[in-house]
Amino acid sequence: MRSRTLPVLLPGLVAATLLSVGARPAGQTQSQTAPPAGQLTFRSTTSLVEVDLIVRDDHNQFVGDLSSADLDIREDGKPQTVEQCYLVRSSEGSAFASINGTPAPDDAPAHRVFVLVFDESDLETSALLRMKDGATKFLNSQFAEGDFGGVVVNGELFQGKLTRSRSTLLAAVRAVKPSFDSRQSRLLPFRMFPRIPGESEAHRIALGDQNLIVQLGTQACQDDPVACNAAGGLQQVENQLQQKARLYLGMARDATRYTLESLQHVIGALATMPGRKTVVFLSDGFFTAESLGELHRLAGMAARAGEAIYAIDGKGLAGGPPESPDVLTREAPIDGGLDRSDDGSGLLADGTGGLVIRHATDIETALDRIAADTSTYYVVGYRPTNSAMDGTFRKIEVKTKRPGLHIRSRTGYIALPLPPLAIK
Q1: What are the backbone angles phi and psi of residue 129, rounded to the nearest 5°?
Q2: What values do phi and psi take at 277, rounded to 5?
Q3: Can you state the angle between helices 292-304 and 342-352, rounded to 10 degrees?
């Protein structure tokens, strides 16, 4: 893996660069300062919790005629009163539709925001090439006037900012480079004698599960007595299993730490921007056994800031070669039995109202699907009955009173004050 240093990006830096925010004198509140002519001040939503809703019917068609009376929203099981409910159709010139007498606020953002996060620490080279090719085609065909975009390269936003410039985004995608190693290269020794079934078993071995060590060592010697004797017998085979597992665990921990730092960097940077932000995480999957709490925390922070995390699984069809004309190698990916890494992307997507597109072989189509999904949605706002911003996780449940409809939304958030929103 390349050695990288993750820079500290202050949450306001990206929005300041993007939206030309002026410094406010100390002690002066937003309401005390009138915005310059031609600019619009976004109100702070510290006390208002906004939830984006994707509503579809049994035929997977978006349902665009709901009202707030059709919705039941609860926080930690307690009913909440909807104060704001409107429909956003970004594909139609960022139109806002009034719902049941509650129109979109004057400060509703009229743009889409897409940030592509390449999981360089884990992506195998051919998968990374497919991801880059698909991202290039997507930007050329779907990135529209008024959209903002960003690309995370080597752990940070390219040029430290979001941009409306397609050419800058394309340059950012070109700047993404394969890592020295990848998830698949780290898993490759598991195939070799003595075999390890998967990363969960490697984790248990590295932590000293003697029963599993003996079980796998005995099985290896039964399956291949010649290799067992050449290794020096059962005891030496067990030692090899432990060495292999410890080496993998150390490298996997480092890669996961870098991946989570990159995601936290993006989540914090986007928190100062108004409206829905779409983060697309492009990955082969990553080691999650020791990071479930951190993943829940990141999802809760992203949800609080109005960020929906979508993930595209770059492994291609399990057990076969990646299907794309830009692939430079025809080697089959690691067998899915070795790689049990889907939970990380799933936790991030489920917690923020996004989706995971698994075994994607056509990355452009996957990105098009994400763009369509995030371009039409409802925004529901409420002031929690528990108004304390105390850093706890709050569970959100949104149901519809109309039968045959399916709602996807963030499942909770971390109750923290948001940073002041930027000026457009």
Answers
A1: -65, -40
A2: -120, 135
A3: 30
Which positions ≥6 away from 270 have C-beta within 8 Å? 14, 113, 115, 277, 279, 305, 307
| 8 A C-beta contact, residue 270 and residue 279 | yes
394 and 415 Cβ atoms separated by less than 8 Å: yes
Sheet hosting strand 393-400, strand order edge to edge: 78-79, 71-75, 393-400, 412-414
Backbone angles phi, psi at 141, to 5 degrees: -105, -25
Which of 278, 1, 290 lies closest to 120, judged by CA?
1
End-to-end CA distance of the chain: 40
With beta carbons less than 8 A apart as the criterion, state whether 169 and 163 touch. yes
The two structure tokens encoding residue 199:
């990363």
Using CA atoms, how far residue 275 sits from 29, 88, 296, in Å, is 21, 10, 22
How far is residue 344's CA from residue 361's CA, in Å, rounded to a whole number?
Answer: 20
Q: How many residues does the chain have?
A: 424
Q: Which CB contacts under 8 angstroms, 24+ apart, belong to 229-237?
A: 231/193, 231/194, 237/194
Q: What is the pLDDT of residues 306-363, one digit of tens each?
A: 999 999 987 765 444 443 333 223 344 444 444 444 589 999 999 999 999 988 888 9
Q: What pLDDT, on the 0 to 100 scale, is given for residue 91? A: 58
When pLDDT is cut at 50, 70 and 90, the band that residue 40 belongs to is very low
**Which pLDDT tens digit goes with each residue over 231-266?**
999 999 999 999 999 999 999 999 999 999 999 999
Are the C-beta atoms of residues 130 and 363 closer than 8 Å to each other?
Answer: yes
Contact call for residues 317 and 157 (beta carbons, < 8 A): no
CA–CA distance from 356 to each of 114, 247, 254 (Å)? 16, 30, 24
Listed in order, strand segments (DSSP E) in 300-414 are: 307-313, 356-357, 376-382, 393-400, 405-408, 412-414
Query: Is the backbone of residue 388 left (phi > 0), alpha (psi -120 to 50) or beta?
Result: beta
The domain spans of the chain are 113-183+251-374, 184-250
Contact in structure between 98 and 104 (CB atoms under 8 Å) = yes
| Tokens describing residue 86 | 């409107």
Three-class SS state of 391: coil
What CATH code is assigned to 113-183+251-374? Answer: 3.40.50.410
Residue 183: predicted pLDDT: 86
